[in-house]
Amino acid sequence: MPVSGADGDPRLEPLYASERATTAGLEWFDAHTHMGENDPDGRSATAQEIVDALDRAGQQRALIFAMHEPDGYQGPNDAVLAACEASAGRLVPLSRIDPRLDPITEAERCLAAGTRGFKLHPRSDAFPMPHPGVEQVVQIAHEQRMPVLFHAGRGIPHLGDAVVDYARRYPDARLILAHAGISDLGALDAAAAELPNLYFDTAWWMVADQLQLYASVPPGQILHASDAPYGSPAYAAWVTLRVARAVGLPAEIRREIAGGQLARIVAGEDPADLGPPPGEAALGPRSIRLERAAAYATGAIMGAFRGLIPVEALQLGVSASLTTRRDAEAEILALVRRLFGLALEACAACEAGEATWPDVVAPALAALVLAGTPQAGAPQVAF
Predict the structure, then answer these.
(1) What is the average pLDDT score of the chain?
(2) Which of 260, 283, 306 delimits the end of a domain?
(3) What's the pTM value of the predicted model, to 2 decimals?
(4) Rounded to 5 degrees, what are φ and ψ at 73?
(5) Please, where are the H alpha helices in 176-231?
(6) Number of domains present in the structure of the chain
(7) Which domain holds residue 312?
């Protein structure tokens, strides 16, 4: 399967495509994709596989950088730069830097070769924050008006204070917290409002985190991202547009989140001010029925991520999505129930050795997102 199977069940494509009709003429620019063959986690992707995934999703461009390379980043950075040069503008390079290993030399070497920014990964490259080597990279980015993308997802302690400090002292560096900044999201509302050079990419799966991001961070500081090959560009775009609609963001702002703002950042231009965040009140009243379904979807997904076959959680999700209502919420619950059914079919295929855990995760993720975003309505699709 392309991009390590992350595209999931092809029956879900009409669902993913349903949101693209809500915002015409999008120029997508993915803030977070990887290439490499030697990551210890076993995942891999070529530049061509990333471009193919963009094509299937109807998308134009992506930032790309090296995956974890235990033997160092000079060669992988060169491979990224070469792939971007050959991509006719589809791929834009970030150079991955290990701040423990003479970061100035590698950053300046990559600058001379055409990089457009830097990637720092405190979990896989095992460095703390703050770190003097990180500050050296941020200072170079400040001088060049370039982005620095920080891993800010699972597996790391709180790093937001350090990044906020860098953002204040280096205002021309564009500092991006990957994975919705979940390591620090709840503590950064005030800092995000204060610091227009502090950004968050959307490469994350938990719908509650996505909703908090879109409700509490200024929309001009949210950048669409897929995390390919770990995530699917088609799925990620669906989530970006659906969550943005759920908090009431209009089409012109959804267009900027999809890629317009990132294009300015990469070009070294001043970002557009897209106004304040909508606030949590934009989400309206809670639906306990949909929250129950979302809870079971979350449990199933986390089990599948750990190699389990989460039949029980999915069966409970089917039960939780039953209703006697006849309204818009019932329409969403019916779609959620169908998605749980697809995930259970994938569980049976896994037990027969005919499928793997991504086949379970794809429909369960879709169920989670639909259950978490009733404000965006029920898509009129069949799958």
Answers:
(1) 94
(2) 283
(3) 0.96
(4) -115, -5
(5) 189-194, 207-216
(6) 2
(7) 288-376
381 inside domain: no
Distance CA 96, CA 76 (A): 8
- What residues have CB less than 8 Å from 358, skipping those under 6 apart? 1, 4, 5, 6, 8
Task: Identify the residue whose tokens are 């039949």.
Answer: 311
Buried b (16+ CB within 10 A) or exposed e, 340-373: bbbbbbbbeebeeeebebbbbbbbbbbbbbbbbb
Written as one string, the DSSP assignment of 91-149 is: EEE-EE--TTS-HHHHHHHHHHHT---EEE-TTTTT--SS-HHHHHHHHHHHHHT-EEE
Query: How many whole angstroms from its chain centre is CA 269?
Result: 23
Answer whether residue 259 is part of any domain. yes
* Helical (H) or strand (E) element with 294: helix 288-305
Condensed to tens digits (0 to 9), the pLDDT of residues 181-201 reads: 999 999 999 999 999 999 999
- 112, two tokens: 């001379």
Which residues in the chain show pLDDT less than 70?
A: 1-8
Please indicate, yes or no, if residue 131 is contained in any of the structural domains.
Answer: yes
CA distance 129 to 94: 20
Q: Are residues 214 and 100 in the same domain?
A: yes
Claim to verify: residue 107 and residue 181 sit in the same structural domain: yes
Of 253, 283, 313, at which residue does a domain stop? Answer: 283
269 close to 340: Cβ distance less than 8 angstroms: no
First to last CA, the chain: 20
| CATH number of the domain that residue 144 is part of | 3.20.20.140
